[in-house]
Design goal:
This protein has a single domain, classed as Nickel-containing superoxide dismutase (Four Helix Bundle (Hemerythrin (Met), subunit A), Up-down Bundle). With 177 residues, the protein is mainly alpha-helical. The chain is 64% helix and 7% strand. The chain has a two-stranded antiparallel ribbon with strand order 1-2.
């Protein structure tokens, strides 16, 4: 009755003030059934590219102007931030596929899956913490294996194709039979 006497928006604010809503987080716990390791691979390529850019970044000379030092520090900070964000995105995407898509039957068919997932999460952390191009390449290689297993569970064959990104590298994609 009270709800009809006052506008809905005002009523909802009143209810929210009495009992604040909680924040919730989800990937798509409907479940939507839409999963794909592509974003994890692209994020790994981004980690690789940022490490390449960091390696190419020339440190300013001791007598460099303040603007040069500032430009160097800014580029290094931006490359590092993007690398860390994408390493975390790799971990997120892999955790979602591991937790929401893969089943006990998948794990039986692919007994390496649990260990592989753990290796990816650890390697993404290692790539996030450092700036080694070889660490980023190792992460991408693990994601290739993960992607191949993922697509096998869907009955698809895969191929490794050039990414055509500046970082180089390859990605695993499903192919039609």
């Amino acid at each position: 009755m009270l709800a009809r006497a006052i506008p809905r928006a005002l009523f909802e604010r009143l209810v929210d003030s009495l009992r604040p809503p909680r924040e919730v987080y989800a990937h798509c716990d409907i479940p939507c059934g839409i999963y794909d390791p592509h974003e994890a691979q692209i994020s790994a390529l981004t980690v690789l590219r940022m490490d390449q850019l960091i390696a190419e970044l020339a440190a300013p000379a001791a007598d460099a102007k303040a603007e040069e030092r500032s430009a160097y520090a800014s580029k290094l900070a931006r490359y590092t931030l993007v690398k860390e964000q994408h390493a975390e995105r790799v971990k997120h995407e892999v955790r979602v596929i591991w937790g929401d898509y893969f089943t006990a039957d998948h794990a039986k068919q692919h007994p390496q899956l649990g260990e592989l997932t753990n290796k990816i999460l650890k390697q993404a952390s290692k790539a996030r913490q450092g700036t080694s191009v070889s660490d980023a390449q190792a992460l991408l290689k693990l994601l290739h294996e993960f992607s191949e297993v993922f697509w096998k569970t869907k009955g698809a064959q895969t191929k490794l194709q050039p990414s055509l990104q500046k970082s180089g590298g390859e990605i695993v994609v499903p192919v039609s039979a």
